[in-house]
Amino acid sequence: MAELYDLNERPALAPQKPFLGSDDNVIRALIIVSTVLVIWKFYVGLISHVIWEEGHFVLSGEYFALGYPDIPAGFPWLARLVTSVFGWHVLPLRLVALLIATAMPLAVYFMATPIVSRRNALWAAMIALLMPPISLNGTVFYPEGALQLLLALMLGSLIRAIQQDRLKWWALTGLCAALGLLVHFRFMGPGLAVVVFMLANAQGRTLWRKPGVWLTAGIALVGLVPSLIYNAVNAWPAVQFHVLNRPKFQPDFGRILGYVETQFALCTPVFFVAMVVAAKNALIRDRNKPESLLGYQAVVIFLFYGLQTIVNKKIMPHWPFMAFVPLLPFIPDLLENFIARASTLGNRRLRMGLIATAPVLALAIGIAGTAYQVAWNHSAELPYALRERNSLKNENWSLLEPALATADKSAKERFGPDIVWASNSHMSAVHLEFPAIEGVKGRRLYTLDDPNDELTRFVVARQQWGLDLNALTAKQGGKGVMMAVLEPSYLYHEPEQMKMYSELCRRFEDIEPFRIVSLPPYKMAVDFYTARVRATPLTGDASPCAFFPQAYIAHPERGEFINADDAGNYFGIAADPKGVTAVDVLLDGKVVTRARYGLDPMEFRVPDLLKYDPNWPKLQYDFQFPAGSLTSGEHRFNIRATRADGTTFDSAPRTLYVR
Questions:
Q1: Has residue 308 got a pLDDT over 90?
Q2: For a Cys staple, 25 with which of 21, 123, 356, 607, CB 3.0–4.6 Å?
Q3: Which residue in 549, 527, 551 sits closest to 649, CA to CA?
């Protein structure tokens, strides 16, 4: 493997036939592979659940603005155009994304032709179809494919501008940059890389004197202006979210290593190592050539997100994918040189086999991703053991439609026909707003000022749309509301959640829990309530309040997997105005143990709003599952609290998996 790092020298060897023969054969192979991928990705798009971002883009586009709290306006505008023409459906959006992804090999060929041979440019286009970070775009309506496409087009135009110094290439570079900045703020990365190139590279420094560079910058700035205006007049929500709220300084070498390992695996080892060599060549060996720009692009973007691993709460695996696009033109020649350096026929075959692992691993990643989507589509039918592998938060929210209808009916029976719907957050609301009932446009939900909306600043958009908590209470005072609320995992243990629900208790009355629906694989649940909006919100606490469960389980979490010999300590809270004397633990409806009740540990104190229980603050319990009580399989778990008068009340059951 060490030899992979020395790919530049090419000693004279016996001639070998080019793989696939003529350029025309490579073009035929490109068409075949591209067609297979289009069909494959179309299938994946058909079976994949709607992701919240798709609803976010569509709903944002319904309210035209120059920008939105977390993103520029490009994709919401595009979503508005698509839904206006093709209706309230997710499939047309995904077809647009697939069209963008399908154009990627053409853009890579355009980027590569000024700096490599026609054949290597064709093979660079082929690698774009084979490398997972590039080839997997197009199954959902998401900006990554558009960003990569625009980057390849921008770099192809910029290389030509540097080589030819013609106005049209400078203008096209600026146009691609403007569109990229209109799609997502992450396109600032390529802009930063160009600036670094113009400062650190001798050839780059000569560009400061070229008028075309300033034309490019001016046109690019046009793409950023709408976002600047939107943010300036709305207290800079994007800055608050991306710069102030999201980062969290956590220096950890393990996270940096994990970042590199993830990209190494996703690109496949052969392609990743080849790109490392390509970046080194571009920065050092070819520093006086225009293609050195591509090395700066790759390194700056990759390092930018690598450094973010120590200052960001979460790094998404796809964020650095743009870094790989500029290096695609160099990979074919490097791999060909690697084969040519073989001194024996056996060694040559070994090297060819090593290179062949790249498309094989890419195929394996594609098959695994498809299998994962198929599994998500059939979570309820999967054997329980396989559900542990479902780690993405991409449940099928359309399964809530029957519960939404019956909860709406219940609210109308209680409070009359003038009912509105609400959900805890923007992310939850858009799941229910789009596509909702396929083809039927117009469902809107108010949001309830969830802490996550404050973090992401989605609250700014919801306020402007008249769909926030204040708008709800102003419009519906004295009237009914149906609420579909994503259940928090640790309500009593999270101060921000406590603050939100306390405010809801002051804003609503006659609150009645209606139903809890857990979506496969049963790791999350939506709590349905019907209530009346208070004509005048309370100024003090309203307790007891139905938003705060009297029988609360902190651990085990919903849908948690534990071992049959588990000896972990689990805990929660039980409270009642009459006082609680005992808490029993039930598994599949049968009592398996009695918890220790009446605890008040210093590490966590129960909130004051539970003072209605005469035993406050000693309201906590903990327990362990007795040996032999756990058997492999899917179980229903809950607790039962006994009041001082001997009556009982149960917590809502949740799924617990035992390995």
A1: no
A2: 21
A3: 551
* Cα–Cα distance, 68 to 552 (Å, whole number): 37
Query: 3-class DSSP state for residue 310?
Result: coil
* Strand-strand pairing, 570-574 and 551-555: antiparallel
- 375: exposed, middle or buried (Cβ count in 10 Å: 0-12, 13-18, 19+): middle
CA atoms within 13 A of residue 472's CA, in its CB half-sphere: 28
Is the distance from CB of 486 to CB of 424 less than 8 angstroms?
yes
In this structure, the number of other CB atoms found within 10 A of the CB of residue 17 comes to: 6
Residues 383, 385, 387: CA angle, nearest 5 degrees: 80
SS3 449: coil
Largest CA distance in the chain: 94
Task: Tally the residues of the chain.
Answer: 659
Alpha-carbon span 185 to 573, nearest angstrom: 44
End-to-end CA distance of the chain: 39
> Are the C-beta atoms of 5 and 277 separated by less than 8 Å?
yes
Q: Cα 522 vs. chain centroid, distance in angstroms?
A: 20
Question: Rounded to whole angstroms, how far apart are CA atoms 484 and 476?
Answer: 17
Which of 274-278, 385-389, 511-515 has the weakest average pLDDT? 385-389
Cα 267 from Cα 467, distance rounded (Å): 42
Would you state the pLDDT for residue 5?
Answer: 46
Q: Hey, what are 229's tokens?
A: 């205006």
DSSP reduced 3-state for 107 = helix
Residue 18 carries which side chain, given as an amino acid letter? P
Q: Is 178 helix (H, G, I), strand (E, B) or coil?
A: helix
CA distance linking residue 576 with residue 548, whole number of Å: 11
Helix axis angle, 144-164 relative to 211-233, nearest 10°?
150
Name the nearest CA neighbour of 449 among 409, 376, 386, 508.
Answer: 508
Token reading at 46: 């058909």
Q: Given a cut of 80, is residue 438 above it in pLDDT? A: no
DSSP code of residue 234: T
Q: What does the pLDDT read at residue 3?
A: 47
Q: Which of 127, 287, 108 has its CA nearest to residue 206?
A: 287
Q: Which residue has the tokens 């650190």?
A: 200
In 3D space, the residue among 436, 429, 490 whose CA is nearest the CA of residue 456 turns out to be 429
Provide the Cα torsion 363, 365, 367, 372; round to 10°: -170
Whether the Cβ atoms of residue 126 and residue 33 lie closer than 8 Å to each other: yes
Alpha-carbon span 373 to 589, nearest angstrom: 33
